[in-house]
Amino acid sequence: MEQLKQLRAQAEQAIQNCDTLSKLNDCRVEYLGKKGPLQEAMKEMKNLDPADRPAFGASVNEIKSFIASLIEEKKAELEVKEMNERLEKEKIDITLDGFEPNLGNVHPLTLVQQELEDLFIGLGYTVAEGPEVEMDLYNFERANIPHGHPARDMQDTFYIDAERLLRTHTTAIQTRQLEAHAPKLPIKVICPGKVYRRDDDDATHSHQFTQMEGLVVAEGIQLSDLKGTLEFMAKKMFGDKRVIRFRPSYFQFTEPSVEVDVSCHICNGKGCPVCKHTGWIEILGAGMVHPNVLEMAGYDSTKCSGFAFGVGVERVAMLKYGIDDIRHFYTNDVRFLKVFSRFD
Ligand code: FA5
Ligand code: MG
């Protein structure tokens, strides 16, 4: 009984001295565990006089529950203490400036392409695409430009082999669309995509650029439908600030043919290096689809007619956003690209 008393005092002291939860747990194992002194004491009971056993047992149990309750108390105290310490250590200073994430934004060419698409979708057109590595057949022959024809020189071409090339214009998608639809009417599509030419790069020319073809075929389509469509597009894209003009032109795949110029946004028509001192920037070629093109695709050109246009997306973007050099679109200077984040 004397030993038990000592044990009680010793345990009480040990628990008091615990300053962390893990030490307290060690203490619990030491005194209340299976190999602890109290378990041992119970084993000793059989050696006692039977008359002393109940009092001894009661004492051991009393010490056990005394130690258990001390541990509980201490545990609650230490939990609060450790929580406070952690809160202190992990304190977040919400007044510190954070790091602004560096977000990307839509490329200006994508932006203008999407704007053009939205505009034409609003007019009932659908969007069609085609391969950039194209067959001579769709890029030239079906566009009424046979092998050896001098009109091929108008678009200096990157050839892959005798039959394949990098398409020089989105008219290649147009001829595919005609073939895919024939003889169904009407057709009303726009065909955006990258095109390639062996042009020398300058302020308004790039060897890789973007075009968007428009094609409408139905009964009784006239040049006035084309003119109205292009005027509508120009107004929507450039507002009333810019003047446009239709200029007679020549394409093998349209008859008659026109080109559309917009007054230069840099000099306002006075003449400058960007517009090569003409005061105008050409944005598109267009015309009435040549009967040969309709016939080759499988349409009866006496029963339907159509108009087509091919607009240079970079040129539109330059005029719309006042960009003085087409090469800005491809050099990917972040300072240039960031300007367009507010238009997303
Ligand atoms: C054509 O490519 C014809 N396929 C357009 C067409 C389609 C006519 C349907 C009739 C019917 P052109 O070569 O002019 O035409 O090019 C059309 C437009 O693409 C030009 O008006 C210009 O805006 C743009 N463009 C032409 N070459 C370049 C270049 N090297 N860099 C940037 N834009 C260019
Ligand atoms: Mg041209």
Q: What attributes does this structure have?
A:
344 residues; 2 domains; BirA Bifunctional Protein, domain 2; binds magnesium ion; single chain; binds adenosine-5'-[phenylalaninyl-phosphate]
Describe the structure.
The mean pLDDT is 93. The longest helix is centred in the first third of the chain and has 37 residues, at 53-89. The strands form two sheets. Strands 1-4-5-9-8-7-6 form a seven-stranded mixed β-sheet, with helices on both faces. Strands 2-3 form a two-stranded antiparallel ribbon. With 344 residues, it is an alpha+beta fold. The chain has helices at residues 2-17, 21-32, 37-44, 53-89, 108-122, 136-139, 171-181, 223-238, 291-297, 313-321, 328-331, 334-338; strands at 126-127, 133-135, 164-166, 187-196, 208-218, 244-251, 254-263, 280-289, 305-312. It is built from twelve helices and nine strands. 42% of the residues lie in helices and 19% in strands. It folds into two domains: 2-90; 108-343, BirA Bifunctional Protein, domain 2. It binds adenosine-5'-[phenylalaninyl-phosphate] and magnesium ion. Adenosine-5'-[phenylalaninyl-phosphate] (FA5) binds at residues 169, 171, 197, 199, 205-206, 209, 211, 213, 251, 254, 282-287, 308-310, 312, 314-315, 326.
Overview in brief:
With about 350 residues, the chain is an alpha+beta fold.
Distinct ligand kinds:
adenosine-5'-[phenylalaninyl-phosphate], magnesium ion
What's the story with the biggest beta sheet?
7 strands, mixed
Q: What is the CATH superfamily label of the largest domain?
A: Bira Bifunctional Protein, Domain 2
Number of strands: 9
Strands in their spatial order, largest beta sheet:
1-4-5-9-8-7-6
CATH architecture of the largest domain: 2-Layer Sandwich
CATH topology of the largest domain: BirA Bifunctional Protein, domain 2
What order do the helices and strands follow? HHHHHEEHEHEEHEEEHEHHH
Can you tell me the residue ranges where pLDDT is under 50 for at least 5 consecutive residues? none
How much of the residues is beta strand, in percent?
A: 15-25%
Radius of gyration: 43 Å
